[in-house]
């Protein structure tokens, strides 16, 4: 293997490596990734990486280029197991130097190797008009020291994300990149697949003269969402197929998404979930293939299966459209290796999605996805529609949780803490007024929480890993919300020795549920499904500040007017239900100002709630 690398090095030295890196051969003789997608390597704003795999000695020839200024900047590439700048195998070029290193901890500058690892050989390092170009060979397996310890990066046996970035270079050290000068592939890359053919359509194919829906249900089968939509609309997700029994092939046509920045993709799935599916997607300039292995796992790019022909990719009125002919039977590594997907003998669900194309690949589709309501026989010419992964349940879930924890729980806590003494002996339905108000609000919060909990589990069909800590905290909140009223049902009578224990337990569970409920909302409003504006978090911060200021003012007034004596024997925020806890005298001094603050707070609280519900409904 080292003999082969040495020969390559000798040839490059002999020739002086005068040939500049170019886009030529991408998708034909080498695999390429660039950012922005399709950019020219001669531009200083273009980040570019290409590679060629040599199966004989299991080595790779890499080309790396990007803007380096006058030698004060670098362009870098790293291979990682996750799409994060951490625990990665790093290589960077300054135009005059080529070096290697390792990504350690996120948000920190990477480490630099004192010497280039054995198995990595620099072939060239040059700079032209501010663009740095480096070429190097790398053995398939390289070991680096990362945060977790010694880690082997084997590009033959394992798939990795490709990360690229630029930044400042100072005295042999690289400085952490800026957020604007980085990108990563949307899925892990299989480095051993053959370059996928890239077909640049002719002007005649980029502007089809007719709607692709012609012949649906008669001469070809069609799937579209919304039902009956036209392929001239970027919001129409469309797939057609025409089975040829003689050649055992199927002609596919695909449409959807805005040409400038999006992809349209579909997959043959064994169920209506995004898992174990044979994937195909197109951009304005290419048709590509992939595999969806596990539920909520990033798709893996693969070479187009052998026998895929008649590839065309282009646009029609700003809409991405492509076509190709696929063998009826192909083999891919899905949830199990060497899985056969034969649409002539087996029915499959259609999974369709559109999203932003990053570096020519896929990004998360968000809510732009549909699935067929049943498995489909692709030998038949049916015209069917799909079911959208409804956002309405998600919106209802979010709105109900905000009603529960922004409004009902917040006002209910304030009533129990600060207004119990002010209602003195006022009763309603045989119970103290403060308690009736508090109980009504908290029961409403409980019902809203339980309904919201059920809705989201039905919508995602289980537990959502991609939502991070939000579902975990939400489950805890729901459990606490159910536990607290059950505790209240079995509370000891006033004066019994265990009453104090109940008061503290009731306060702790209620306070924990309230805090965690607001925390879950903070995490939830930033999830991709809701697609709320970025400043939504600051509106929530404003609400929390409004609530805390109100609590502080009420606490000061209670202390100043001597109201605290009415509940000083209970813990802060206690929801003590002792009938003897209320002052039986006339309303104490300061009651008027506290009632006024309650009205102002309630109106302000409801204002925040309405604002969020409107945002949720409109997005």
From TrEMBL:
SMART domains: B561, DoH. Residues 1-20 form the signal peptide. It holds the Pfam family DOMON. It is found in: Membrane. GO terms for cellular component: membrane. Residues 45-167, 235-355 form the DOMON domain. The chain crosses the membrane at residues 400-419, 440-460, 472-490, 502-525, 537-560, 595-618. It comes from the Eukaryota. Its cofactor is heme b. GO terms for biological process: regulation of glutamate receptor signaling pathway. Residues 359-560 form the Cytochrome b561 domain. Keywords: Electron transport, Membrane, Signal, Transmembrane, Transmembrane helix, Transport. PANTHER family: DOMON DOMAIN-CONTAINING PROTEIN FRRS1L (PTHR46902). This is Putative ferric-chelate reductase 1. It comes from Ciona intestinalis (Transparent sea squirt).
């Amino acid at each position: 293997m080292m003999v082969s690398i040495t020969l390559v090095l000798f040839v490059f030295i002999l020739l002086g490596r005068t040939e500049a890196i170019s886009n030529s051969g991408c998708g034909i003789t080498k695999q390429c990734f660039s950012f922005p997608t399709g950019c020219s390597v001669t531009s200083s704003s273009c980040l570019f990486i290409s590679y060629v795999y040599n199966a004989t000695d299991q080595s790779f020839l890499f080309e790396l280029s990007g803007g380096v200024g006058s030698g004060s900047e670098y362009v870098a590439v790293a291979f990682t197991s996750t799409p994060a700048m951490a625990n990665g195998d790093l290589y960077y070029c300054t135009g005059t130097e080529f070096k290697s290193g390792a990504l350690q901890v996120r948000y920190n500058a990477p480490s630099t190797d004192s010497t280039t690892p054995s198995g990595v050989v620099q072939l060239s390092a040059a700079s032209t008009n501010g663009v740095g170009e480096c070429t190097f060979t790398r053995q398939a397996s390289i070991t680096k020291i990362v945060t977790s310890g010694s880690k082997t990066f084997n590009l033959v046996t394992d798939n990795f994300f490709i990360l690229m970035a630029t930044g400042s270079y100072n005295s042999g050290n690289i400085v952490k990149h800026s957020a604007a000068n980085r990108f990563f592939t949307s899925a892990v890359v299989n480095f051993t697949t053959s370059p996928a053919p890239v077909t640049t359509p002719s002007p005649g194919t980029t502007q089809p003269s007719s709607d692709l829906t012609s012949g649906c249900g008669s001469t070809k089968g069609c799937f579209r969402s919304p039902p009956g939509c036209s392929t001239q609309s970027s919001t129409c997700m469309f797939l057609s197929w025409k089975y040829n029994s003689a050649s055992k092939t199927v002609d596919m046509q695909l449409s959807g998404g805005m040409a400038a920045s999006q992809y349209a993709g579909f997959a043959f799935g064994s169920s209506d979930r995004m898992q174990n599916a044979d994937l195909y997607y197109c951009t304005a300039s290419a048709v590509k293939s992939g595999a969806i292995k596990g539920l909520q796992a990033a798709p893996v790019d693969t070479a187009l299966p052998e026998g895929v022909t008649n590839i065309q990719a282009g646009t029609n009125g700003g809409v991405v459209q492509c076509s190709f002919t696929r063998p009826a039977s192909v083999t891919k590594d899905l949830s199990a290796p060497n899985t056969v997907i034969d649409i002539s003998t087996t029915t499959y669900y259609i999974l369709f999605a559109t999203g932003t194309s990053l570096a020519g690949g896929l990004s998360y589709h968000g809510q732009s996805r549909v699935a067929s309501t049943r498995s489909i026989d692709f030998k038949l010419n049916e015209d069917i529609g799909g079911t959208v992964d409804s956002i309405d349940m998600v919106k209802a879930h979010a709105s109900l949780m905000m009603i529960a924890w922004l409004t009902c729980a917040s006002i209910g806590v304030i009533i129990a803490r600060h207004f119990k003494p002010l209602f003195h002996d006022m009763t309603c339905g045989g119970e103290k007024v403060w308690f009736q108000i508090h109980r009504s609000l908290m029961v409403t919060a409980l019902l809203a929480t339980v309904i919201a909990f059920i809705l989201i589990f039905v919508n995602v069909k289980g537990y959502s890993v991609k939502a991070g800590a939000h579902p975990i905290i939400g489950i805890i909140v729901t459990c606490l919300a159910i536990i607290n009223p059950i505790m209240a049902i079995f509370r000891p009578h006033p004066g019994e020795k265990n009453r104090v224990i109940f008061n503290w337990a009731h306060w702790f569970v209620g306070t924990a549920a309230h805090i965690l409920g607001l925390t879950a909302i903070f995490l939830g409003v930033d999830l991709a499904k809701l697609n709320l504006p970025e400043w939504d978090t600051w509106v929530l911060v404003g609400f929390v500040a409004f609530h805390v200021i109100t609590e502080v003012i009420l606490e000061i007034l209670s202390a100043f007017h001597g109201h605290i004596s009415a509940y000083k024997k209970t813990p802060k925020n206690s929801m003590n239900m002792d009938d003897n806890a209320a002052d039986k005298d006339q309303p104490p001094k300061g009651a008027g100002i506290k009632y006024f603050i309650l009205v102002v707070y309630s109106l302000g609280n409801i204002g925040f709630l309405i604002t969020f519900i409107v945002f949720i409904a409109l997005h």
